[in-house]
């Protein structure tokens, strides 16, 4: 028999076997394959990557022909193998579905702090919609399921993902762009470098600046070494933050007496925005925990001023002496406009007035923010938020403002400012054109929020999505579930 005859026989044998397998498939299984194939092809079109369509052949084999023996265990003579592998099969299938759902549709996130208190509460669990702005293609696609960046200590700790393979930033088509006033979930921009024993809420760069200012630059490295190992995280593995977008690409932002100005126009304050107020009550008339709770104020946000424990800067800036605190109760507490009015109407409350801002932490940009506060921010003209395609002349002030955008976010590691000019890869440049859009984010709890005023702009590749609903909410102070918040709109001011 010739080689041609052998090849022909094999081809005919394969054809007969293929047709036999196809004809033996039930109608139900064909329907399941059709549904999965349509969803997969829609995803391929959404991804704009035609080469991914080749995996349709794998789906066809899984559902129809069965040449690859994924279900070999079903024919095992061992009942233990069949039972065990059925569980493994179900778990793997579920994890694959969860992976794609979390990556491209949405995911649950917890609110860990009070920076959006009033709108979102500490203990809220949110469903974050990633499709509104368009989901990012996972940049570190290989990672331990259901873990963000660190393995649980029970599994040894360490990174929960592989740094290779990695995928360059790509965002799929969404329903709309970010709008002013949106509450946005994003990866913490300055969370690229993290200390494993980081002190409180200070990020690595703020900590360096803080130590430099108060202890001297010569002490920075030794002090930093005491806070544990330095760990670098890629963009999509940085910690998740949630804030309100108050500034869009290309806009000028400035804050005067707590009011945000965009391009010189005062912006509407969301209903649930809070500011720190100084509350004074009559001698011998403290406000009880029950009264604070009735007002809807988190007890963790109430600062009771005492003669022995209060920060002296807080006293001086608010015109208080220690004798004042001995004579009658004083509090600094974040309040909405509605809660201010409720407090003023409360028996025994003598005054409720805006507390003076006291800045202990450095504001962004560090080199230009002397004299700024969180309530009066941006200097005379404000700060311009970078936009994709925006070209700026680069002088010392521009470099101090946009250095991190240029060097870190837009991946120009050799960028430096010397001899009065910008240099990238040894080439002198008089201007720089941004490759991404950026946003300015702030918390609604304006005086208790570490936000863009402290760490700067949020690049578009850090955007995760927008909260849709509160799934469930746990009250850490009083215990139990906040039943009235289940399925509550997560952005009621929008």
Primary descriptors:
single chain; 494 residues; alpha+beta; 7-stranded antiparallel beta sheet; 4-stranded antiparallel beta sheet; 12 helices; 29% helix
Question: Could you describe the 3D structure shown?
Answer:
Strands 1-2-22-3-6-20-21 form a 7-stranded antiparallel beta sheet. A 4-stranded antiparallel beta sheet has the order 9-8-7-14, with no helix packed on it. It is of the alpha+beta class and 494 residues long. It has helices at residues 3-23, 27-47, 56-65, 79-104, 204-215, 220-225, 289-295, 312-317, 322-327, 337-344, 396-409, 452-455; strands spanning 106-110, 124-129, 183-187, 193-195, 230-232, 240-247, 252-256, 259-262, 265-266, 275-281, 303-305, 330-335, 349-354, 383-384, 391-393, 416-418, 421-424, 427-429, 431-433, 438-442, 458-459, 463-473.
């Amino acid at each position: 028999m010739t080689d041609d005859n052998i090849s022909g026989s094999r081809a005919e044998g394969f054809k007969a076997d293929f047709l036999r397998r196809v004809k033996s498939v039930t109608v139900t299984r064909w329907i399941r394959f059709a549904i999965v194939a349509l969803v997969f092809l829609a995803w391929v079109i959404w991804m704009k990557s035609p080469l991914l369509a080749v995996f349709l052949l794998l789906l066809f084999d899984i559902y129809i022909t069965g040449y690859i023996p994924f279900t070999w265990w079903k024919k095992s003579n061992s009942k233990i193998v069949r039972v065990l592998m059925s569980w493994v099969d179900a778990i793997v299938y579920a994890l694959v579905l969860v992976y794609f759902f979390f990556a491209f549709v949405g995911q649950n996130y917890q609110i860990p702090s009070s920076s959006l208190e009033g709108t979102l509460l500490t203990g809220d669990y949110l469903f974050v919609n990633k499709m509104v702005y368009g989901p990012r293609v996972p940049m570190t696609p290989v990672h331990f399921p259901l873990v963000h960046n660190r393995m649980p200590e029970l599994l040894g700790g360490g990174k929960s993902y592989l740094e290779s393979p990695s995928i360059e930033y790509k965002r799929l088509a969404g329903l709309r762009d970010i709008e002013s006033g949106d509450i946005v979930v994003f990866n913490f921009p300055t969370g690229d470098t993290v200390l494993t024993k980081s002190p409180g809420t200070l990020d690595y760069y703020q900590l360096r600046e803080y130590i430099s200012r108060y202890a001297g630059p010569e002490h920075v490295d030794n002090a930093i070494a005491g806070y544990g190992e330095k760990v670098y995280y890629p963009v999509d593995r940085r910690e998740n933050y949630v804030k309100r977008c108050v500034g869009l690409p290309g806009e000028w932002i400035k804050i005067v007496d707590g009011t945000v100005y965009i391009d010189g126009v005062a912006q509407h304050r969301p209903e649930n925005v809070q500011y720190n107020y100084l509350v004074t009550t009559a001698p011998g008339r403290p406000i009880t925990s029950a009264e604070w709770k009735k007002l809807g104020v988190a007890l963790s946000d109430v600062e009771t001023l005492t003669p022995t424990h209060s920060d002296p800067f807080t006293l001086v800036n608010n015109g208080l002496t220690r004798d004042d605190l001995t004579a009658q109760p004083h509090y600094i507490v974040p309040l909405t406009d509605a809660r201010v009015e409720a407090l003023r109407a409360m028996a025994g409350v003598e005054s409720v007035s805006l507390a003076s801002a006291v800045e202990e932490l450095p504001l962004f940009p560090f080199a230009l923010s002397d004299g700024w506060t969180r309530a009066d921010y941006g200097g005379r003209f404000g700060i311009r938020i970078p936009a994709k395609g925006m070209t700026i002349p680069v002088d010392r002030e521009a470099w101090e403002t946009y250095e991190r955008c240029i060097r870190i976010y837009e991946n120009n590691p050799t960028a430096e400012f010397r001899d009065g000019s910008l240099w990238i890869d040894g080439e002198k440049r008089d201007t720089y054109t941004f490759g991404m859009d950026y946003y300015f984010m702030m918390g609604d709890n304006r005086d208790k929020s570490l936000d863009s005023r402290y760490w700067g702009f949020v690049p578009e590749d850090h955007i995760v999505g927008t909260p849709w609903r509160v799934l469930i909410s746990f009250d850490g102070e009083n215990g139990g579930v906040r039943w009235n918040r289940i399925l509550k709109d997560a952005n009621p001011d929008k």
